[in-house]
Amino acid sequence: MTPESLDRAMMIGVSLNLVFVFVELGFGFFSGSLALIADAGHNASDVVGLLVAWGASFLARQQPTTKFTFGFGRASIYAAFLNAILLFAACFAIAWEAIHRFSEPPPVAGLTMVVVAAIGVVINTVTAILFMRGSKEDANVRGAFLHMAADAAVSVGVVVAGVAIMTTDLKWIDPVVSVVIMVIITWSTWGLFTESIGLAMDAVPRRIDIDELSQALIEVPGVVDIQDLHVWGTSTSEIMLTAHLVITDETWRGSLEKVQRMLNERFSITRTTLQFEELSESQVCLQRPSASI
Predict the structure, then answer these.
(1) N or C of the chain: less Cβ packing under 10 Å?
(2) Do 73 and 234 meet the contact criterion of CB atoms below 8 Å apart?
């Protein structure tokens, strides 16, 4: 997903959801539905989540400075973590409300709530689709995608529960659907949460198989061993690699170009710091990774 397409998706997503917040507030006051007013507040928090992701993406694209020599890419990691926390908070709120509705089922909100929720399905689904492609490679974009997908799921649940209650008068349908939605959101958010923590702790990014990467480096002509290999994410979309490569002779100039091209083409690693050592001068790396945690 290019920066231009991401900015466009963010602008459309923020605009659509901000309009929907005011629509929900208006219908909520008009119909006297406290649920719609509360959901407008929830959707306002989603707008904040999108703005956080957008701001972090903007910072990550800024040039490094003499003080921040790596740039501001980590802002996207912290934004992904914050959005995961916001999603968990939303799940807690859904679960809390569902518990109260099991014991004290509220009256059916009526056709107005179902219609507004249906509008929410369309808006949130369209917004989620805008981020779908970028969410596969960027945890920050995935946080925005999950926000919108979760809201679309909630809106679908409201429509289904509302229609079912109006036709059957079974008020327990609403909290049951809410619990199912909460479980789905929690399950899908857990991956974003653990990935963002891993990136913040300089773990190897999930899309990198470190064993495959090591084998690919060894297979480069002239390279016989790897020392001090480190791979981490400088942002949610950019990967950094440093390594000492042991070579048999002074062929490192040709090997350097081959290694950098291979890392870029096979693993999308564009930022590398490589040091070449001759076999006779190499030493055992004292920081060689042990068993995985």
Answers:
(1) C
(2) yes
